[in-house]
Amino acid sequence: MTPEQYVQDKAARSGSSFYYAFLFLPPPRRAAITAFYAFCREVDDIVDDAIDPGVAATKLAWWRGEAQAAFAGRPSHPVTRALMPHTQAYDIRREHLEAVIEGCEMDLQQSRYLDFTGLSRYCHLVAGVVGEVASGIFGRSQVQTIAYAHRLGLAMQLTNIVRDVGDDARRGRIYLPIDELQRFEVKAHELLQRQAPWGYSERFTALMRFQAERAHRTYDEALALLPEADRSAQRPGLMMANIYRTLLREIEADGFQVLHQRTSLTPIRKLWIAARTYWQAR
């Protein structure tokens, strides 16, 4: 299996909404974003699948060393071998990869965030930086597009947090800020238990509605930052935004039933949203 086949398989098997947006890119840009996305999946899966935090930390340290070696001209993993030919053309830098690794390391070091400021730092590393790299691969001519990409990355990460409350609780993690739990009188143990009588209370629904409203507001802020000159080039990001926002609306319509299930859109629906966005942005 070639490095290019490896990253393509990694992206396709993930079932991510990102994959459907990649399909609309010309081959060189599609190859670059697929390789970068495969890198993000590799390091993120280390944490999500971790049984022993020490082993996961060692694996992330290996990836940090691999990033350094790759940018010194010595890539050894199929992902970095597939990615390195594209780094110069799309301004993908070592510090971008190291930021994503740092964000994953945060997942090993803490499972709670005191406030939204602390959570925002985490979101910057695992989503904002990813958005910045992706926007460069998609094509940008305006500096302001970077700010748009960071804001859009935050909005999508906030959507992930809403969707994954139950899955995260199963791993002992709570990404909803502690001060906001306190404001809505929702206890951490209620989330961790993921069941009645506490689970789907009016307090929980109010808390989740607050989270969803912030995510929607962040999408609006991101879209307002996108320069018209880059709108066409950034269509893949707009596709992802529309897929994620549709998912968020599905969760809202279902009454935030996120403790016992993980809401998702079907592949055909994701593809339809991506295609519709593509043609609307032409």
What does this structure look like?
The chain has two domains: 1-109, no CATH class; 111-282, Orthogonal Bundle (Farnesyl Diphosphate Synthase). It contains 14 helices and no strands. The protein has helices at 3-14, 17-22, 27-48, 53-71, 78-83, 94-109, 116-138, 144-163, 165-170, 178-183, 188-193, 202-225, 235-253, 267-280. Helix 7 packs across helix 8. The longest helix has 24 residues, at 202-225. It is globular, with a radius of gyration of 19 Å. The relative contact order is 0.11.
Give the total of domains: 2
CATH class of the largest domain: Mainly Alpha
Name given to the CATH architecture of the largest domain: Orthogonal Bundle
What portion of residues is helical? over 70%
Number of strands: 0
CATH topology of the largest domain: Farnesyl Diphosphate Synthase
Distance between the termini: 36 Å
Beta-strand portion reads under 5%
Count up the helices: 14
Overall shape: it is globular
Give the rounded overall mean pLDDT: 92
CATH H-level homologous superfamily name of the largest domain: Farnesyl Diphosphate Synthase
Poorly predicted runs are: none
List the secondary-structure elements in sequence, H or E.
HHHHHHHHHHHHHH
Question: Biggest sheet, open or closed, and with what strands and sense?
Answer: none
Rg on CA atoms, Å: 19 Å
Structural class: mainly alpha
